[in-house]
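step: validate -> pass
step: tokenize input -> pass
step: predict -> running
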Amino acid sequence: MNLRNAVVLLLFVVLVVAPQADAYRFSVGAFGGLNIPVAQEDAESGTAYGIKARLPLTGFIAVEPNYTYLKNGDGEVLVDVNGWDETMTNEGGTFNSFGVDLLIGSVLGYQGFGAYGIVGLSTAKFERNGLPSNSNGSYWLGLGFEYAFNDQISLEMRGKAIIFPYDDSTNPFSSDKGSRKNGLLTVGVNYYFGFTQ
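step: predict -> pass
step: emit ->
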């Protein structure tokens, strides 16, 4: 799913929920930051950004439909060429992820500090030049910290990890099966709708 379709879907979710704003508090937000491949010799750190909507189910549990884009930096790999090791630059690749996170903790964004845990599922696609695209169900884990300046606007910091199962048998440099793991450190802004305390 591309960014434009993700924006349209998130706006649709917000419009469906908006009539309940007097009795139901929700938010929309955007974030960006650093993407860090974990234990991947063929990729370096890159960028991450995305959008999300938070829909509280109770005072301490919420769901967040979200779109996240991750870009890996190019990595260097050693390749045996006629008995000699040569270093080759390998494009890091990109992830496009659309999913839903479950937040547990301080999720209503009222003025002041809050923290919460994150677990989630997504459908993610890994793409890299010269290799077939690889789409799989993926998992998210993390922690979030939020500071609300008032009852409408908050600043958020998150540390998350995506676990992306893969089959790398089409890669000429590898035939591994396992998972790609990427850590994210992001900063974002949320805007809240609905009732206040």
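step: describe -> Strands lie at 26-38, 43-56, 61-81, 84-90, 94-105, 112-127, 134-148, 153-167, 177-193.
step: cleanup -> pass
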